[in-house]
Amino acid sequence: MILTINCGSSSLKYRLYNADLTEVVATGLVARIGEDGAYSKHTAGDKEVFFRGPIADQKAAFDIMAENLMQSEFAVIDGPEAVTAIGHRAVHGGDVFVESTIVDGSVMEQLRACVRFAPLHNPSNIAGIEECRRRFPDVPNVVVFDTAFHQSVPPEAHVYALPYELYADHGIRRYGFHGTSCRYVSQAAADILNRPIEDLAMVVCHLGNGVTLDAVKGGRSVDTSIGFGTFCGVPMGTRSGDFDPAIIFHLVKEMGMPLDEVEALCYERSGLLGVSGVSNDMREVVMRADAGDERCALALNIFIYQIKKTIGAYAAAMDGLDALVFTAGIGENSTEIRSRICEGLGVLGVRIDERTNLLVQDGHPNISAPGASVATLVVPTDEERMIALDTVRLVTESGRMPPPIASQALVHAHDA
């Protein structure tokens, strides 16, 4: 069995696969850890268990996961020995980790050194790895980094025009995020088109509460919208996206705002929420905009305009465009947002079939209009499967696990 772990500061997501990754045996979520309203949900086959009550910390969350997987009436394995490998998501690998890696003592030290780049995320990721190493002492762990896919971004795109020493001595540069999702989706898009990924230039639009636009050429990330921190690029649910840094100096010097308040403003009170004044949920913003709310309409217009502008810039950077790919919560589910983004992109060769755009949920991922020179696709992301694929590959190559029987487990195939 292959277990994947995504451990956040207030949540734990887990998924258990069979050995060749052809079946999801169980999934679970423990949410609002350490907060009021904490709950957990565990699904195995057609059975589901839901719990609401105090969940003090991540150790308590792992206790719930272990009970659900191994001890309760919904148990699917007899004990820890049934797990042959564990894959973990880590948000930030700095410029040390350029690919997924098997965990050892040295890797843990380097992970701790990367905490300074993602102080809100990496400590929880590390805690999840440590908890698994304690509970499954003989099981290899693999860590998969959101930033690793973007290590191929060239210097002209990842070095900021600041004093060079900040980059060389302190690692201040564009790192990018959502790389695990972008890597999975870009390969899945190539599979749908039945074309080698090496021949394709595509823009992947990961549109959720967090937003990443990624230029992928030949299967490699060549530019990405999020930078050193996670509030730049395109506006997001609560994060600002790009703005003139002089505004920060003005807020501090002229308005007397403390830096921690400015930071909270950029990360927590901006984006869709900040402009609309009502919500960071795209569904509510769209509903209110349709009902005549001018601020919600403005929030939508800003969001769509910045995405369209970035798609055009990336097409220019790649000297052309073969595919435009939508993924994540908004990208996969909002017919209206996809339509409005694609409107006016005909100059790039993007044209969609509005009828097919309505049928995405019925298994029609290619929403391109007949004769369009650029394919427009909607591809569900699956970060957990990408983590599982890397885990099986690395542990098998290390000799710590026999090769899976089904060879397709090691192919980044799109799940039909």
From TrEMBL:
GO molecular function: acetate kinase activity; ATP binding; magnesium ion binding
Keyword Nucleotide-binding belongs to the record: yes
Subcellular location: Cytoplasm
Binding-site list for ATP: 13, 206-210, 281-283, 329-333
Cleaved signal peptide residues: none
Site (Transition state stabilizer): 178, 239
Names of the cofactor(s): Mg(2+); Mn(2+)
Gene Ontology CC terms: cytoplasm
A Pfam entry, by short name: Acetate_kinase
UniProt keywords, alphabetically: ATP-binding, Cytoplasm, Kinase, Magnesium, Metal-binding, Nucleotide-binding, Transferase
Biological processes per GO annotation: acetate metabolic process; acetyl-CoA biosynthetic process
Cofactor mode of binding and number, as noted: Mg(2+). Can also accept Mn(2+).
Catalytic residues (positions): 146
Residues bound to substrate: 89
The keyword Transferase belongs to this UniProt entry's keyword annotation: yes
CDD domains xref list: ASKHA_NBD_AcK_PK
Residues that coordinate or bind Mg(2+): 6, 383
InterPro entries: Ac/propionate_kinase, Aliphatic_acid_kin_short-chain, Aliphatic_acid_kinase_CS, ATPase_NBD
EC nos: 2.7.2.1
Family, similarity comment: Belongs to the acetokinase family.
HAMAP family, alphabetized: Acetate_kinase
Function: Catalyzes the formation of acetyl phosphate from acetate and ATP. Can also catalyze the reverse reaction.
PANTHER family reported for this sequence: ACETATE KINASE, ACETATE KINASE-RELATED
Quaternary structure and partners: Homodimer.
Name the UniProt record assigns to this protein: Acetate kinase
Gene encoding the protein: ackA
